[in-house]
């Protein structure tokens, strides 16, 4: 089989004065099988070799798809994987940029696996229970009263969006993000963020139910109550119970 011709492209409109140019890349087309994974590996390799540096603006999604000779949905999935990994930072309406690649962003194998593979929902929530349970325990020790105030303010926001599932999911994500931040461990926080992104894909249907949402809100309050008491073990168990409840409602929805 003849070797595919390499492509060298810049972002659309890069030659104009009004559009910031993207970095120039020499790329071979990707074979269709396992295309998303191969695109991610190729772009990661460009980061490791220094061809892509922190702050570089990538070509547009359309131009990248043409470079790799893959579909735009395949390229979109690859960019999403790299965003969850922390390697790129897509800005709405402003392009795709290589991130600063700080230590907290380098949980590559875990995030890459979670993003590109079909994961059993049981395994996902088993992992979330372990990681987010530890996050809750650490946060119970480290969080100040005003930090818990912020978490409980988010719980109030959740109550106000109980009949607006899309808004609720955003507040729910912020609750878990803040809790992860309060653990003081950026590596656990990154892992939790990656798993929460994937978990939301599984959970979208379940989180349309006001009854399910109300149960999650109650779980969140139990976690905060344990944190107020500085009881790390109670906070861990409250989070593990929350993950068990999430798994139960998610599986119930997916089986119907």
UniProtKB/TrEMBL annotation:
Residues 33-101 form the HTH gntR-type domain. Pfam families: FCD, GntR. GO terms for molecular function: DNA binding; DNA-binding transcription factor activity. InterPro entries: GntR_C, TF_FadR/GntR_C, Tscrpt_reg_HTH_GntR, WH-like_DNA-bd_sf, WH_DNA-bd_sf. SUPFAM superfamilies: GntR ligand-binding domain-like (SSF48008), Winged helix' DNA-binding domain (SSF46785). It comes from the Bacteria. Keywords: DNA-binding, Transcription, Transcription regulation. This is FadR family transcriptional regulator.
